[in-house]
């Protein structure tokens, strides 16, 4: 069970990841303004932020046994932070393919974005074990001793049932995103964060 010290360290780590990513984004935008390819740099940085934070939250939930209420609160808060900080990055292949199908992205742009997303995901997966190896908390130390292996399978249901659940969640998520124009702009990110949190709870 994750103690208050473990939770505090993880919160500081999440903040550190977001701050590092935001500094990198602002630096890139400052050094290379009005460059067409800057969106791909933002895609790399933002997807790294998303994946690195997700790894830490997953560790808290699986290894730390985080209480559901705290887990859902963190999910909502970090989703809001992601939404306000991504600067136009999509960060998921499914979201990119959806925009391609709608005609808002060209094939080349979509392919490049997805490539950036996959590279960033691999980098985040490679970097986080090195961060955990620093043993900043007892939770990180415990995870290091297990060789950074997940304790639970993410799929706790028959394959077809799990696939149906994933498809249902994806449908709800994209349906919500498609209707965002009906929501006042300042509430759009919290609305999506609320949908994500609800799906995690479900």
TrEMBL record:
SUPFAM superfamilies: Aquaporin-like (SSF81338). Gene3D superfamilies: Glycerol uptake facilitator protein (1.20.1080.10). Keywords: Membrane, Transmembrane, Transmembrane helix. It is a multi-pass membrane protein. The keyword Cell inner membrane does not apply. One of its GO terms (cellular component) is membrane. The keyword Transmembrane applies. This is Aquaporin. It comes from Cirrhinus mrigala (Mrigala).
